[in-house]
Amino acid sequence: MTAPAQTSATVPQPAYSPLFAAEIARAKSGVEASIRAGVHVPVPKDPGGGVTHEQHKRNYRTIFEGGQLYRLTGDVRYRDHVRDLLLAYADLYPKLGPHPAAANQVPGRLFWQSLNDSVFLVNAAQGYGAIRDTLPAADRTRIDDNMIRPMARFLSDGSPEVINRIHNHATWAAAGVGLSGYLLGDRDLVDKALLGLDKSGKAGFLRQLDLLFSPDGYYAEGPYYQRYALQPFVVFAAAIAAHDPDRKIFEHRDGIVLKAVRTAIEVTHDGNFLPLNDAMPDKSLRTEELYHAVAIAYAATKDPAFLSIADWQGRSVLTPAGQVMASDLAAGKAKPWPFASRLLGDGPDGEQGALVLLRTKPDPRGPLLVAKNSVQGMGHGHFDRLGWLYYDETGAVVTDYGAARFLNVEAKRGGRYLPENDSWASATVAHNTLVVDEQSHFAGNWKTGEKYPTQQLATALDGPTRYSIAEIGTAYKDVRFRRALLLLDVPGLANPLTLDLLRASSGTKHRYDLPLHFSGHIIDNDIAFTRNLAERPVLGKANGYQHLWVDGEGTKAGKARLTWMQGSRFYSYHMLPPAGARFIVAESGANDPEFNLRREPALIQRLDGAADATFVSLLEPHGEYDASSEAVVASSARVTALEHRREGAADLILVTLVDGRRFAVAVADDVAAGIKHSVTVDGRALAWTGPVGRFDLAKTGAKK
Q1: Burial environment of residue 185 by CB neighbours within 10 A (0 to 12, 13 to 18, 19 or more)
Q2: Lowest mean per-residue pLDDT among 103-112, 183-192, 551-560
Q3: Which long-range contacts (C-beta less than 8 Å, at least 24 apart) are formed by 143-146?
Q4: Which residues are part of the catalytic machinery?
Q5: Is residue 4 over pLDDT 50?
Q6: Domain containing residue 322: CATH number
Q7: How far apart are CA 522 and CA 519, in angstroms?
Q8: What is the extent of the structural domain holding 280?
């Protein structure tokens, strides 16, 4: 007599922590829906976002989650549904050739690009691993030989141009191939995943760990792709730790896997990833990749700060690591994540520039000044050396466009990167850095840019005067420019000031443009703009300029100011451009026939016919707007004067506040830490050691 099949109703269920119980309920909802719908494994035909594409994505999620649910509940309905899906793929997969919707990427079999096939295999191998030992030998053989092994062979021997790269596509491929090798007991697949197809170690997972991350755990392609690449890195690392413990994978390269997880959390503001390079600005820590990464990192370290991140995410994963993490969170073991200023060196040796994060408090929503002095970022990199961003409680204030793409929205070119990603989003003028002669850095060639790093010259991460000083002389043929970005805590001001000093030098004359892209609505300015009210001319013809409408142009001698409002706060941007500079108010969206671009404002300081130029700017957050009570406080700037002097081998910036207080910031040309400098201001000698000095000066007549 055959025993009745067990279901979740007949198998006693343990008491799970709330977070893990919610994860089980969420997974059950999706898998039960798939069971009711039946097995649907269509012949692939659509690009990203299309019907067949989305169905295969749903299927690999169901395979992963169904396998985990069977492991947790013993309900054979989950096992049988996962088995039936896998058997259907075992019937379909041998019949497939290159995907019919393949475009400019290496085509997959199930998806338009092989990357998605790798993601499928990473998930399918984990789900299958949870049920494989319970299946009849005949079923295992069919799934092993007709699906798992052929997919792994396709993604390894069949795609050498992918798996042998140093790139996130190769990481996903290596993880899928390696997990399959461990699952099938196929050492050949495991070694190819770890060491490259020729097993020399010149490619493969371990080489990717060595070359794609800096010693600080910063990923070569930037935060957005660090997020995306983390899942295969941590999932495969966990498998290596379980199957090949002698490799001590979590100790490899001074613990680089776990450093990468920590750094991924650091390169966020209010949980949202900094949108550098080809990034979608809506990606946050609430993403599948980080659910896995946080759970595995906590399991490996038991660092209670990871629990606070899991709490913010409100999610776990249906793995033993996720279960332990959720249980410890419920037990009250979480501690706040220690957000702080960070210098994240770039490049495998950490010496190819840096991403600098300057924070004044450990609050994940607090002020954050980002100095992007990093390497190009490979093919996903943008031409924005020495660019910057600023965030606070209102969100992104000084902004980066990120990528021009509607991910998986089929109506927008199949969800792929749009033409405007090259013509606008990656162009230098779309960023907050210097543009020379309306040309992008490195003439818009990322392979050239990859050869030339930025020089991070000096950094101070703590104290009332935090700063980053960096330089590059290769972005343009005969122009060198240096930028000092300083985050200044000022007593009596609720928010820090950001001081920006940019100096460019050349042997020939050029047009210098310094854009500022910001979020908010313009409130006030003291620039005499000539407004284009009837027609909107376009700023230029190429290199991103063709996408900028010109709303107005103006001039002003001495200090100029533009004030805008975002959310509950006002922001004044004070400028001391070189003599003869003009100001251009612009908006993105010109020459955009398919309405692909967001309409966002920009202010450009423009100087024509100069060999050398110094731009001094100060961003001042101030005041408050309360919509509920209709109350407005301090909508006018607190900074009343901004002066710049060149004193010997140093730049001196003088700031006067509305209450009469006055302070000076000195930035020396020589950035060596132990060098002493001095200048004289109003008959007073000011001396300091190192690149930057800051001084309180005599108070001027107070203003009411």
Answers
A1: exposed
A2: 103-112
A3: 143/83, 143/86, 143/87, 143/89, 143/90, 144/184, 145/90, 146/90, 146/91, 146/93, 146/94
A4: 225, 380
A5: no
A6: 1.50.10.100
A7: 9
A8: 212-338
